[in-house]
Amino acid sequence: MDLQILPVTEPKSRIEDENELVFGKQYSDRMLIMEFDRSKGWHSARIQPYGPLSLDPAAMVLHYSQEIFEGLKVFRRADGSLAMFRPEDNVARFNRSAERMCMPAVDEKFFLDAMLELIRLEADWVPHSEGTSLYVRPTMIATEPMLGVRPADQYLCYVILSPVGAYYKGGIAPVKIWISDFYVRATEGGTGEAKTGGNYAASLYAAREAAENGYDQVLWLDAKEKRFVEEVGSMNMLFLYDGKIVTSPLHGTVLDGITRRSVLTLVKEMGYEVEERALSVDEIMDGAANGRLQEAFGAGTAVVISPVDSFCYKDKCVQLGDGSPGKLTMELYNTLTAIQYGRLADNHGWITPL
Question: Are 258 and 277 in contact (CB under 8 A)?
Fold first, then answer.
């Protein structure tokens, strides 16, 4: 399949003050699109001007939620060069999500190469300020106009780009987490490990309730016993517990996070023992009180590393230490961002230069 590049005739105006950049509000001039039909596979790959999509009201994505997406970033380094962090892993996860949602796989090499070409064409959209980046959002939706519950025969895959500001504009800020004892995000055998919109829609009600009560995030427990920690809505969770790194195992309900993988590699190199096991909510609440739980942090593309200030469960709240980011938490944040922005050598093959 060839990649066609169409001209941009009306370039957009950009935000001049990068301090005004917010997440997901402005988009670049171009987008990557390719189409799928069951009878001929992927076709019509093109980079075209950014613009609205035309969908039939009966498009199956609107009725049966066949949809997947990814999220990754492009970083501008001090010398002006551009780099991405583990993009091949995002593309591979995109295909795993597609498999779970009965959607067609993309050719990983072609898709990554086309995405990199889009980014090269839009290089001027990558912000320059410390902590900023260009957010990349690959998406696939079912477009066949059909009312009936089955996998669609037609799909649209596209990639859009959005310049985003620094996540922590006033310095890294620990979050208050509410542990839900009623709502659940995913169940074994469900779609929890896929990056699909329905998982996020299912989290909105609890997230709104948490925000109304002064919390920043919801920590989900397992659906069967509502006892064991799984993940936060937009992050994998990791804990420094009894001097070991503990995180939920990947058993179908937790997203296989790229940042999570990177953190586990780094902490092993630092000499920490890693336990991928189900940590109970009692261990968290008691551990924070007696000191066995030393640090807790989330890991994800948007935040990189997000330190936890406190956990609240039912009618009890516990703070970790004095509420400030832990030593390991900050070391991981500084190491990962230094690799991404080129201040530290990449010894793992994680960086793709553009």
Answer: no
